[in-house]
């Protein structure tokens, strides 16, 4: 088959670099030891960057409340308060403790010299009214839930009714994994420094970060040259225009397998998504009772009644890529089709009950394969609990890819795309409206269609995840998130795929 996907995907294929907390600390130390930039100077730059973001986002703000912890994150806050006071703003500082250390102690002294006297927080205290609250309680070092007075202060910040700016990391969020083990600040904007921390973009973190801004604090590019990131954010992409002499055979043939009794909708969504994502031909193998409805609703799908693996074989022979799992079930019919499909050696996307069957009968894939589990399915595939998967989504996604020899898409807020060699990409798009039935069926069809058009498995997964999430974001514009249907994504998906929608 002629490869139609023979030009680079449009837009930047390298997204924002994401680093672990350990990598971020190493870069911070390199700036101090290797470039001779004092730690206090980095703290001053961080405070100035945070204040600049605050003034840019809330230019009318006149009264600030800065909440400081005893560490370097608190030091950033103390210096921000001093700079804001010098800038003519009314500033109050609430601190968890007066026992700041090192550069943070110097920052506190500067705050006092600027005329801002910090007052210590008490568990049953109240916060003064402010136009903006600044969270500088904890930075990257906190891996556990805030307790006692700190937890009470976090609760007060969240209940203050004012917009919140988080300095580097919202307090209570694990910047390495995205885990939120307990109380955590809900920020409207998070300004993070030097490098983007990977945990800010997945798991529970997106519910707390608001808009994330990165400020490199004026550090030179040379600092980062020998510091490869742990992961990257996906960049917006589309496929290039088709050749003018293209025909349907150039664009691949997807066979969608599933739709046991009562689940025709799942396989229809999968098949229709494959069509809308550009597959030249899409066949559906399903139960006989669903054929009339599929033909009436979407005649472009070539629907076939399949009562077992023998009837599936001719369809497998004609298809180039398989979309296996939506509505498949785990009964005798679904299991028999699942075995025949996997044994065919065809490139495939595996979802839903296709994944649950894989958890019962594990195997490594020799053919190109993309697995698209949600956290519950991922837990079954790894023999773990959902809590363990969500505690470190990066490790879970990489473990899935390594164990099964496939590209693994760990779905959820900040979906992750992991390859067997360890590469990992994070999706920065999507919204809570997409937490509804059928969204996963759609993603399966999209990724399968991209495979059929010539993308490699990693390319298809990255592009498909990004298109799916971006289509979800376009679909809620003007109408809101609640009530979003999976089929609402099909029209914006088509525009995005062709590069004609932002």
From TrEMBL:
InterPro entries for this protein: CARKD, Nnr, Ribokinase-like, YjeF_N_dom, YjeF_N_dom_sf
Cofactor: K(+); Mg(2+)
UniProt cross-references to Pfam families, sorted A to Z: Carb_kinase, YjeF_N
Entry superkingdom: Bacteria
Binding site for AMP: 411-415, 440
GO biological process terms on file: metabolite repair; nicotinamide nucleotide metabolic process
Protein function: Catalyzes the epimerization of the S- and R-forms of NAD(P)HX, a damaged form of NAD(P)H that is a result of enzymatic or heat-dependent hydration. This is a prerequisite for the S-specific NAD(P)H-hydrate dehydratase to allow the repair of both epimers of NAD(P)HX. Catalyzes the dehydration of the S-form of NAD(P)HX at the expense of ADP, which is converted to AMP. Together with NAD(P)HX epimerase, which catalyzes the epimerization of the S- and R-forms, the enzyme allows the repair of both epimers of NAD(P)HX, a damaged form of NAD(P)H that is a result of enzymatic or heat-dependent hydration.
Family indicated by similarity: In the C-terminal section; belongs to the NnrD/CARKD family. Belongs to the NnrD/CARKD family.
Protein name: Bifunctional NAD(P)H-hydrate repair enzyme
Species this chain originates from: Fulvimonas soli
Gene this protein is translated from: nnrD
């Amino acid at each position: 088959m002629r490869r139609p996907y023979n030009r680079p995907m449009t837009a930047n294929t390298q997204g924002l670099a994401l680093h672990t907390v350990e990598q971020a600390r190493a870069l911070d130390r390199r700036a101090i030891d290797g470039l001779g930039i004092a730690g206090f100077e980095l703290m001053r730059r961080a405070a100035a960057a945070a204040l600049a973001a605050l003034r840019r986002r809330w230019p009318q703000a006149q009264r600030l409340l800065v909440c400081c912890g005893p560490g370097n994150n608190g030091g950033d806050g103390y210096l921000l308060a001093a700079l804001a006071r010098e800038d003519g703003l009314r500033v109050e500082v609430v601190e968890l403790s007066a026992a700041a250390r090192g550069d943070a102690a110097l920052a506190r002294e500067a705050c006092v010299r600027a005329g801002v006297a910090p007052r210590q927080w008490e568990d049953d205290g109240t916060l003064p009214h402010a136009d903006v609250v600044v969270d500088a309680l904890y930075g990257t070092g906190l891996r556990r839930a805030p307790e006692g007075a700190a937890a009470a202060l976090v609760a007060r910040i969240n209940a203050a009714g004012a917009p919140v700016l988080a300095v580097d990391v919202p307090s209570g969020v694990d910047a390495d994994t995205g885990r939120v083990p307990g109380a955590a600040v809900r920020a409207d904007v998070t300004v993070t420094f030097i490098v983007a921390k990977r945990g800010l973009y997945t798991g529970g973190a997106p519910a707390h970060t608001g808009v994330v801004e990165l400020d490199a604090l004026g550090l030179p590019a040379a600092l980062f040259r020998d510091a490869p990131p742990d992961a990257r954010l996906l960049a917006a992409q589309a496929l290039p225009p088709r050749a003018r002499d293209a025909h349907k055979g150039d664009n691949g043939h997807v066979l969608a397998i599933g739709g046991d009794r009562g689940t025709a909708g799942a396989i229809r969504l999968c098949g229709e998504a494959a069509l809308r994502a550009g597959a030249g031909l899409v066949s559906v193998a399903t139960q006989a009772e669903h054929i009339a409805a599929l033909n009436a609703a979407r005649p472009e799908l070539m629907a076939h009644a399949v009562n077992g693996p023998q009837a599936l074989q001719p369809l497998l022979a004609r298809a180039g890529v398989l979309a296996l799992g939506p509505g498949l079930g785990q009964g005798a019919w679904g299991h028999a089709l699942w075995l025949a499909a996997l044994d065919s050696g065809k490139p495939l996307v595996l979802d839903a009950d296709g994944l649950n069957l894989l958890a019962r009968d594990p195997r490594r894939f020799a053919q190109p394969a993309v697995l698209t589990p949600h956290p519950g399915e991922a837990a079954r595939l790894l023999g773990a609990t959902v809590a363990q998967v969500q505690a470190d989504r990066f490790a879970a996604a990489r473990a899935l890819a390594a164990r099964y020899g496939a590209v693994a898409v760990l779905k959820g807020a900040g979906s992750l795309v992991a390859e067997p060699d360890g590469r990992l990409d994070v999706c920065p798009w999507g919204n809570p409206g997409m937490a509804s039935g059928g969204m996963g069926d759609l993603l399966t069809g999209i990724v399968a269609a991209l495979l059929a058009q010539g993308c490699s498995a990693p390319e298809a997964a990255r592009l498909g995840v990004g298109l799916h999430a971006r289509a979800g974001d376009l679909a809620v514009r003007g109408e809101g998130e609640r009530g979003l249907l999976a089929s609402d994504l099909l029209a914006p998906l088509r525009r995005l795929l062709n590069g004609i929608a932002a």
